[in-house]
Amino acid sequence: MTDATNIAQDLVTGRWRSQILHAGVKLGIVDHLETQSHPATAVAAALSLNPENTYRLMRALASIGILDEGAQGVFSLTSAGQFFLSSHPNSMRGVCLWEEGLPMYAAWKHLPEIVRDGGDDGFKREYNCAVFDMITSDAEVGALFNSAMTSYSQVETAQVLAALSELDVSQVRQVCDIGGGRGHLLCHFLQAHPHINGIVFELPETLADPHDLLAGQMDLGDRCRYTAGNMFEQAPNADAYFLKHVLHDWNDEECIGILKNAHAASHPGARIWIAEYVVPGPDTPDFAKLFDIHMMSVLTGKERTEAEYIDLLDGSGWPHVKTWCQPQGSMSVVEGVRAA
Ligand SMILES: C[S@@+](CC[C@H](N)C(=O)[O-])C[C@H]1O[C@@H](n2cnc3c(N)ncnc32)[C@H](O)[C@@H]1O
């Protein structure tokens, strides 16, 4: 086969790979191989799975580089497979379970009609509600989503901290992470800057179980508090704000609302740090251009160019100061400072 034929075939069957991976992670096969190699029959017996189909799935997982199939059909995890262990420090397990799970999968099927008709939000077309309505009303879906966000953060927090490593924050005393999830980014930022206190501002449902919140687990309970609220109505007062993976969920009008609420709560000179995958120019293939289609399929949001983020900042009283661009495929940070 020619290279072009291989590329075309891989693209057509890309979903097969991600669904094979999803099944292996969801059924516990990946976690079961954490410490020891096993034949498929032993994995099937331990996890109450059909032995013949378990072997076929594990053979396919080996074919996509997640497992190794050794002599006598004994399977072990590859180094790529380890990233899907629950215990991996940069685990992508939550991302895999959420992004290839039923709600996201079902939303994507509306993509052709969304592109044909205009509009967005395949999720609403499928389920007749917005994605955050389901996340807050269905505890199981909410738990999957919040684990996925923490899972994304296990890679992204390091990128954001690296981007901001030279930043002078000596005058900053209080940082608020709006839509900050369970606090992964903020807690790691506070660890790096012991003179700063923090607030994670989140929907009440995300904060419902204190065991899930990272400040306690990271021994930062005295410096990081969690405040429940609606970012479309208000924001806490702070010297600086993080918005990581928040603005990309929303359309321009909704983003301006969030930014204006932070503006109203803060004082002149306050700073805002927008962490997102910034869309590069037309000649550069980039993850942000794919993530943009995900946003089109499941929410009202979009991935934006740097100029589009600057327009949002200018339109909400946070003139742009600087952008920390990161290597391709990593998060960038766009900074605004509150005008008088
Ligand atoms: C895509 S997630 C990003 C979470 C986190 N910043 C991160 O990067 O992992 C968006 C977050 O916004 C929160 N959120 C959605 N609507 C909100 C609202 N109206 N007020 C406050 N938070 C909201 C969600 O609960 C979710 O945690």
Description of the molecule:
With 340 residues, the chain is an alpha/beta fold. The protein has two domains: 84 residues, Arc Repressor Mutant, subunit A; 173 residues, Vaccinia Virus protein VP39 (Rossmann fold, 3-Layer(aba) Sandwich), CATH 3.40.50.150. Helices cover 47% and strands 14% of the residues. Strands 6-5-4-7-8-10-9 form a seven-stranded mixed sheet, with helices on both faces. Strands 1-3-2 form a three-stranded antiparallel sheet. Helix 7 crosses helix 12, helix 11 crosses helix 12 and helix 12 runs parallel beside helix 13. It is globular. The chain binds S-adenosylmethionine.
The rounded distance between the terminal residues' Cα atoms is: 63 Å
Radius of gyration: 22 Å
Q: How much of the residues is beta strand, in percent? A: 5-15%
The main sheet comes to: 7 strands, mixed
> What is the general shape?
globular
Structural category: alpha/beta
Q: Helix fraction?
A: 40-55%
Number of helices: 17
Short description:
This protein is an alpha/beta fold and 340 residues long.
Write the layout of secondary structure elements.
Layout: H1 3-12, H2 14-26, H3 29-32, E1 38-39, H4 40-47, H5 51-63, E2 67-69, E3 74-77, H6 79-82, H7 93-99, H8 102-108, H9 111-117, H10 122-127, H11 131-137, H12 139-163, E4 174-178, H13 184-192, E5 197-202, H14 214-217, E6 224-228, E7 240-244, H15 252-265, E8 271-276, H16 287-298, H17 306-314, E9 320-324, E10 332-337
Parallel strand pairs: 4-5, 4-7, 5-6, 7-8
Antiparallel strand pairs: 1-3, 2-3, 8-10, 9-10
Helix pairs in contact: 2-5, 4-5, 7-12, 11-12, 12-13
